[in-house]
Automatic annotation (TrEMBL):
Entry EC number(s): 2.4.1.-
Pfam families reported in the protein's UniProt record: UDPGT
One Gene Ontology molecular-function label: UDP-glycosyltransferase activity
Source organism phylogeny: Eukaryota, Viridiplantae, Streptophyta, Embryophyta, Tracheophyta
InterPro entries in UniProt: UDP_glucos_trans (IPR002213), UDP_glycos_trans_CS (IPR035595)
Record-stated family: Belongs to the UDP-glycosyltransferase family.
Residue ranges crossing the lipid bilayer per the database entry: none
Protein name as catalogued: Glycosyltransferase
Sorted UniProt keywords: Glycosyltransferase, Transferase
Length: 470
């Protein structure tokens, strides 16, 4: 086909890995599955992490998907070290372009002026989106802090949310992260539609609510399109590092469904105390594990966000508890900083995923049928963890014993054992498998996610029929 006549979609993403991953997959799908040309605009930072670099410069991107870096911003110049969300929002407030990413709603105005339909892509669950759409109302009506409200938060038609399970950003209304979050979610109704990386088999109840008139009467919202799962399959050999190859060689030697993968997203970092408990909990569990480990820090749970994988000399023996690696040599594999998570989750030896419950990681685990151990750290991960455990039934999480600040080693031991080799784990695995089947179904021709994206694509194509160049 003549490239010039293909309809053109612009996608704007912030450079956080958790946003680039699903938006890039979404763009590939538009190009490969629906005949669009896509310009992928990404707000780069001056010094991208190796993971960001690898994603954006991947050799295998389709020809009609063009990645363009917008003028780079130095994240260190905008706000203090520890506030990843504020930094992302400030960085994104510089350009004014056509926007899709959740934290890019400024560009909805520009798109409106140009008469271009602008859609938002929200890297969150339908449950979290329902809460976010309702937040401006809650903000107007509630007095005091939302976490101090007497009962659970009742988003119209949705299961109640315990204030404790709210994302950190909404726990302090004076905080600038709260103001940024509220600013963007208040603007969601300006979008022509919202894409979500979820699917019917995962969140059917919530998606039904989001389609009901009664919801729209109470909560301003555009149309919601569930198009997931969007999973970045990072298996091509060129993208693998030597540590990845070692991981696969090690995984190949382990029995089926016997290994717990421990990974905390693109920036998740434990405190020294949490790391010590995690290490000895794994050791006590006597289960096999593959741990993507980072240097602990007491500064912030997202401390590594802008720096992950930069330290080429990263040596876990320097920061893991003394004796840990010797004691676990027979059963454990430790990888510093970063590994090919999706490819690892696809390996038959993986039996469970101890995750921070970032939405991409959760989607990836379920698209691969792997049950989870929920260890949330920041942003909306606690809400996701509660949902995965209670609403969906694929996860269990360690509880923090009274009088302690962090989950102790015995508790880590208990949950790891329960999911990898206990009866409860079997139930969770069965449920995760069901969800995996539903994900395959939803993406097949005629499946709900496929149909949902195809309908929007048809609409876009109909709108630009007759245009020479869109
Ligand atoms: N990821 C990875 N290797 C790692 C850690 C993370 O490939 O060692 C990927 C993971 O597969 C996911 C993304 O980074 O696609 C993290 O996104 P998520 O939403 O789970 O968490 P966030 O990083 O936004 O907290």
């Amino acid at each position: 086909a003549d490239r010039g006549n293909k309809p053109h979609v612009a996608v704007l993403a912030n450079s956080g890995v958790g946003h680039v991953v699903p938006l890039l997959e979404f763009s590939k799908r538009l190009v490969v599955g629906h005949g669009f040309r896509v310009t992928f605009l990404v707000v780069t930072t001056v010094d991208p992490t190796p993971a960001q670099d690898q994603l954006l410069n991947a050799a295998g991107l389709p020809r009609d998907l063009r990645v363009l870096g917008l003028p780079a911003v130095d994240p260190a110049s905008v706000v203090p070290e520890d506030s990843a969300l504020t930094r992302i929002c400030l960085i994104l407030s510089y350009p004014r372009a056509l926007v899709v990413d959740l934290f890019c709603t400024q560009a909805l105005d520009v798109a409106g002026e140009l008469g271009i339909p602008a859609y938002s892509f929200c890297t969150m669950s339908a449950k979290m989106l329902a809460f976010s759409l309702y937040l401006p109302t809650l903000d107007r009506e509630a007095t005091g802090e939302l976490v101090d409200l007497p009962g659970p938060i009742r988003v119209p038609g949705c299961p109640p949310i315990r204030p404790d399970d709210l994302l950190d950003q909404v726990k302090d209304r004076e905080n600038e992260e709260y103001r940024w979050f509220l600013y963007h979610v208040s603007r969601f109704p300006m979008a022509a539609g919202i894409f979500l990386n979820t699917w019917e088999g995962l969140e059917s109840g919530l998606l039904r609510v989001l389609r009901e008139d009664s919801f729209y009467r109470q909560v301003p919202a555009p149309q919601i399109h569930a198009i997931g799962p969007l999973v970045h399959e990072d298996g091509d050999a060129e993208g693998l590092r030597s540590t990845d190859i070692e991981c696969f060689a090690w995984l190949d030697r382990q029995p089926e469904e016997s290994v717990v993968l421990v990974s905390l997203g693109s920036g998740g970092t434990l405190t020294t105390e949490q790391q010590v408990e995690m290490a000895w909990g794994l050791e006590l569990s006597q289960q096999r594990f593959l741990w993507i480990v980072r240097k602990p820090t007491d500064a912030s749970a997202s401390a590594t966000f802008f720096n992950v994988g930069r330290d080429e000399e990263d040596d876990p023996t320097k920061y893991l508890p003394q004796g840990f690696q010797e004691k676990t040599r027979e059963v454990g594999m430790v990888v510093p900083s970063w590994a090919a998570q999706v490819a690892i989750l696809s390996h038959p030896s993986i039996g469970a995923f101890l995750s921070h419950c970032g939405w991409n990681s959760s989607v990836e685990s379920l698209a691969k049928g792997v049950p989870m151990i929920a260890r949330p750290l920041y942003v909306e991960q606690r809400t996701n963890a509660a949902m995965l455990a209670e609403d969906i039934g694929v996860a269990i999480g360690p509880t923090v014993e009274e009088g302690r600040k962090v989950a102790g080693r015995e508790e880590i031991e208990r949950v790891v054992r329960a999911v990898v080799s206990g009866e409860e784990g079997k139930r969770k695995r069965r449920r995760a498998r069901e969800i995996r089947y539903s994900s395959v179904e939803s993406l097949s021709a005629g499946g709900s996610s496929h149909a949902s994206l195809a309908a929007v694509c048809e609409d876009w194509k109909a709108k630009c029929r007759g245009c020479e160049e869109v």
